[in-house]
Recover the amino acids of this structure.
């Protein structure tokens, strides 16, 4: 049973645009929600993470919005650049980094 | 560079064989996680060790086993390999049992 649903599967935006990737979870025991960025041939790299006691977190150009009642969270990338072209994964776990359940990934392409 | 080192980077082996994947965690990290990434299953948690002890188990097959040694490096052993075991295998590490996890570059296993 897939516990974290991610959409869209792929996304193309123009340079400077704001791609938004959405995730929804089912398990209300999840209390840690990270986003990972993965380039071809590389391992996932932690971008930003949020816990359910806040509704928004910003780190540089990356923002997580969190809606606990809807069991949804999303990643916004401000002023996107071609170098942001990668696959993005949302994930969730209970009690910190233990046993991450990943979404299916979103392939982002930022065009000039 | 996450600081997590995995060897080998690539491995090609025949069905029925046994292989060992190695992971050196970031300096100071006590937790090691193993994940499998395949096109059909996505990123799936396999197993976690903390300071030498198994702490959590995911969708790990009985043909697979892992251990964490006193120097904190970990090995994932895959036996009786099948074509469907072809995948990227990632190791991740974290300071504690419930903190952010950082991924290595992965080992690409091809079973022929």
């Amino acid at each position: 049973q897939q516990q974290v649903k991610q959409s869209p599967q792929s996304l193309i935006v123009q340079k400077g645009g704001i791609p938004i990737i959405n995730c929804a979870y089912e398990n209300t025991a999840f209390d840690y929600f990270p986003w990972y960025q993965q380039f071809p041939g590389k391992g996932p790299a932690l971008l930003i993470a949020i816990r359910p006691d806040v509704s928004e977190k910003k780190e540089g150009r990356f923002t997580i919005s969190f809606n606990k009642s809807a069991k949804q969270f999303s990643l916004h990338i401000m002023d996107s650049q071609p170098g942001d072209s990668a696959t993005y994964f949302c994930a969730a776990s209970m009690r910190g980094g233990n046993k991450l359940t990943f979404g299916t990934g979103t392939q982002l392409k930022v065009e000039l | 560079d996450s600081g997590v080192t995995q060897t080998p980077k690539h491995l090609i082996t025949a069905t029925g064989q046994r292989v060992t994947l190695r992971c050196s965690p970031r300096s100071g990290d006590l937790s090691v996680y193993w994940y499998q990434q395949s096109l059909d299953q996505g990123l799936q948690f396999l197993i976690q060790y903390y300071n030498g002890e198994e702490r959590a188990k995911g969708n790990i097959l009985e043909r697979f086993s892992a251990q964490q040694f006193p120097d904190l490096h970990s090995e994932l052993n895959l036996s009786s390999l099948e074509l469907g075991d072809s995948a990227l295998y990632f190791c991740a590490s974290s300071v504690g049992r419930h903190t952010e996890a950082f991924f290595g570059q992965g080992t690409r296993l091809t079973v022929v």
About this structure: The longest strand of chain B covers residues 42-50.
